[in-house]
Amino acid sequence: MGAAGIAIDRAPIRGVLAGPRALRSALSVLLTSKGWAKAIEMPFKNFQRDFANTLSEMDQREAYARHIVPAPGRIHFQNACGIASRIGFGNARRDPLLLVAGLSDQTIEPAMMPATLRKDRKFGQTVVLKEFKWRPQRQGK
Asked: Chunked in runs of 10, what are the mean pLDDT values of the chain (141 residues)?
């Protein structure tokens, strides 16, 4: 068991609805015929606008080539409907949690974090939210 958990740009948990920007980022999947049952690759334009919006175009292309692969559309539908990620909130042994939000994020909107924070705290868990004004969405090389 760990001493603490860190959730960076945490996806919506069950009961927290995705905001308008988050829905827009999933729109290409949501509008794909039977998209919930397919593996779908995100178009570069969507990646550029929604995931790598703080990077230069060269870095965006590099990140897209390196990290984007077809993924199950079902995940986008679950997040959009607020039926994703079930968490055992009643578990009194949950470790403290640090929620990290990037204010430039287009997919996990900072406005969604207070609802997540309230749900976590409702059951007595120690939770802290740290918002960064500018945090590029780039993973290490």
From this structure: 77 77 80 87 89 89 94 82 72 81 74 81 82 59 44
